[in-house]
Structure to design on (744 residues):
């Protein structure tokens, strides 16, 4: 273990104590004399709005650890700052918010600490598939903060008008789309943002068992344009060619208006979708419902996820036990985690919240009093395992570029998968990987 | 000369002191600028150049690569595709923007305009709007389904224009940039027009020149240095285009990819691909392309106007 200079000579003492006692109990139980005068400062980077609420709770409960919250910006700005810090070897936080999809790329450059000795005790508090996103066996790099299991939000008014029951399979989904669009050319079954949201595309490929980039020992196996991808591409290409869906980028005013005004009959959304939709589609209150994600094989129920992030502990931290305590406490403490669902509109990660009557049985007016959370909770327990690539940012960008090009007339989606395969193999070799 | 030598020698100490401080003074006055220039322009450039000689890989970390990145850029279809996009963009956009700016400046200078101050400010106002905001405003106007142009077209039963299609995008972006920078260039021309001595205007009027002749034969030639300046600025600005396509991507990601302009490409390389060294090399080559384009333009214009 690294030796840390400390004029008060108390850090090692506490660290040893923590190792034995486990972080959450130990810190508050330490005698005042051991705690000393100066609390350990833990720097936390996160873009979660109002996270200061939870941080204040933490600081109040931990007199000898003080969290300093910094918001470097959502997603890329934070990652760019982390990568700049890793390059420079300084200026890094102790704990950072990292989306599940990018954890692997930070593992690849050995940026994350193993907090398994503190965190493994909490393994059972999260759904198994979710814990697999932050852990590799006993090695744990982060704790789950929010999640995006996928399901289908749909317009009951549109379905009713055309005599359609919510599709349970993708075949039914396509038939329903063709029926609705034939009856009303101004209505599209959904918007599929192929050129914009590669993470959304991945969320739909996920339950099919797609393994774009996986590890085989120290080799990378790259199978982006496999049969699964080709089947997926053929299905969506058919809907594009038939004109029953649109392929415009999401998350802009045009798209919000489209959802609100009934241009789109469904939104294939994630766990954070219901509350997000409530905030952007204000006039279609009561017209929306949630249903399970359509399935390829009706005999088994399997889903994927879109989004969600974790609190990861950086390897460069000088205060590993305290940083681990921050990451664990903020995402397991009942009061703090409940606040995520009420203040930050997060989809809950802990089993306790997922099964709590208060959350699961909520009947929002926006969804006509339906218990929508139960639909997404069911999805959360059916999310298949998934292996992220060590260069997820490049994979996404390559997918978005090539899907966008195919939508703009450069070949089909299937051709786009071939082009992504080539681009990723070239990139992986260039980055020094051995490609199997 | 020889006669004045001895009195000069007598006062040498005093004059020497004055001479030194006079020599030092300009450097002292320059120091604040030079220090900031070194800290924020020269040092980052040197660092970026240093970075461009290295390769960062996910396996193996940082290695010295010499000129390898530069050789790769020379053969990179994505980089040159982006440059080509901007050459097309510039050929369309720069002449339109500068012609409009010139027209507005001459009209405002003519003095027969009502509420001159209001118009001058009005034309200049878009430049005061940050390009980020300008792009968001235009993005809303361009909206292919619910944008006002589409709504208007629908009201008249016309096919709605698709400003965001692959074919139209370059013009839609050119329109935003024109809207932003016409006023800026107009102010440069306007200031240059104001600097033309009024006796020239009087003389031309007495000689019976029409307003058109005055503009063509007197104002334009005297404006030539200002026009050259704005063209060089425009070549620079065009080849560095970033904000507008970057933000427009949120509305038209199927059209604008990650290498649509060279700066967008360098940004993607650094932030998504983590190819910092290569991104630095791309930036340097872009800088060379810009310097080269400006130099060639200056050579051509100098040759055309030997009297300058």
């Amino acid at each position: 273990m690294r030796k840390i200079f400390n004029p008060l000579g108390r850090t090692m003492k506490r660290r040893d104590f923590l190792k034995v006692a486990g972080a959450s109990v130990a810190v508050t139980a330490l005698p005042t004399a051991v705690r000393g005068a100066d609390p350990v400062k833990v720097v936390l980077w996160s873009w979660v709005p109002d996270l200061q609420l939870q941080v204040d709770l933490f600081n109040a409960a931990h007199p000898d650890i003080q969290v300093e919250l910094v918001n470097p910006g959502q997603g890329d700005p934070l990652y760019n700052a982390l990568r700049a810090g890793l390059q420079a070897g300084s200026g890094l936080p102790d704990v950072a918010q990292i989306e599940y999809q990018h954890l692997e790329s930070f593992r690849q450059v050995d940026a994350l600490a193993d907090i398994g000795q503190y965190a493994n005790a909490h393994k059972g508090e999260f759904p198994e598939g979710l814990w697999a996103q932050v852990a590799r066996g006993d090695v744990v790099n982060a704790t789950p903060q929010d999640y995006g299991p996928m399901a289908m939000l749909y317009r009951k008014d549109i379905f009713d008008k055309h005599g359609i029951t919510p599709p349970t399979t993708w075949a039914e989904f396509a038939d329903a789309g063709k029926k609705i669009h034939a009856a009303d050319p101004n209505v599209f079954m959904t918007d599929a943002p192929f050129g914009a949201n590669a993470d959304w595309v991945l969320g739909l490929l996920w339950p099919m068992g797609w393994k774009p980039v996986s590890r085989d020992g120290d080799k990378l196996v790259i199978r982006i344009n496999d049969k699964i991808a080709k089947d997926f591409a053929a299905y969506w290409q058919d809907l594009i060619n038939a004109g029953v869906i649109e392929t415009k980028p999401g998350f802009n005013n045009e798209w919000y208006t489209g959802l609100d005004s009934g241009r789109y009959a469904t939104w294939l959304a994630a766990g954070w979708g219901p509350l997000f939709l409530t905030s952007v589609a204000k006039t279609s209150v009561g017209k929306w419902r949630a249903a399970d994600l359509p399935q390829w094989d009706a005999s088994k129920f399997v889903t994927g996820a879109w989004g969600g992030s974790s609190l990861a502990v950086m390897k460069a931290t000088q205060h590993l036990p305290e940083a681990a305590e921050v990451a664990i406490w903020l995402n397991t403490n009942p009061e703090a985690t409940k606040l995520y669902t009420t203040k930050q509109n997060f989809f809950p990660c802990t089993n306790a919240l997922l099964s709590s009557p208060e959350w699961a049985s909520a009947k929002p007016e926006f969804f006509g009093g339906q218990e929508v959370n139960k639909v997404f909770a069911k999805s959360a327990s059916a999310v298949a395992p998934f292996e992220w690539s060590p260069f997820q940012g490049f994979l996404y960008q390559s997918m978005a570029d090539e899907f966008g090009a195919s939508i703009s007339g450069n070949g089909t989606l299937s051709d786009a998968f071939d082009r992504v395969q080539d681009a990723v193999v070239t990139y992986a070799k260039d980055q020094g990987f051995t490609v199997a | 000369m020889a006669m004045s030598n001895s009195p000069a020698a007598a006062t040498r100490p005093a004059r020497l002191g004055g001479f030194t401080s006079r020599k030092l003074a300009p450097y002292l006055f320059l120091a604040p600028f030079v220090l900031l220039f070194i800290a924020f322009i020269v040092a980052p450039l040197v660092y970026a150049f240093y970075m461009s000689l290295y390769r960062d890989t996910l396996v193996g970390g940082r290695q010295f690569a010499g000129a390898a990145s530069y050789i790769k850029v020379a053969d990179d279809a994505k980089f040159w595709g982006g440059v080509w996009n901007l050459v097309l963009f510039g050929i369309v956009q720069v002449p339109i923007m500068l012609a409009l700016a010139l027209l507005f400046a001459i009209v405002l200078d003519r003095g027969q305009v009502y509420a001159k101050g209001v118009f001058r400010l009005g034309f200049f106002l878009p430049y005061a709007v940050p390009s980020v905001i300008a792009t968001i405003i235009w993005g809303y106007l361009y909206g292919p389904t619910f944008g006002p142009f589409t709504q208007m077209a629908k009201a008249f039963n016309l096919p709605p224009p698709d400003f965001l299609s692959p074919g139209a995008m370059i013009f839609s972006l050119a329109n935003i940039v024109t809207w932003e920078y016409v006023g800026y260039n107009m102010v440069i021309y306007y200031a240059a027009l104001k600097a033309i001595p009024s006796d020239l205007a009087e003389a031309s009027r007495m000689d019976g020149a029409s307003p058109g002749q005055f503009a063509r034969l007197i104002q334009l030639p005297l404006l030539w240095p200002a026009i050259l300046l704005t063209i060089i600025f425009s070549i620079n600005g065009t080849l560095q285009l970033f904000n507008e396509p970057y933000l427009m991507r949120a509305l038209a990601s199927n059209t604008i990819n990650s290498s649509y302009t060279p700066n967008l490409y360098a940004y993607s390389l650094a932030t998504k691909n983590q190819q910092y060294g290569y991104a630095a090399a791309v930036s340097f080559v872009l800088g060379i392309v810009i310097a080269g384009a400006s130099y060639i333009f200056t050579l051509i214009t100098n040759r055309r106007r030997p009297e300058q």
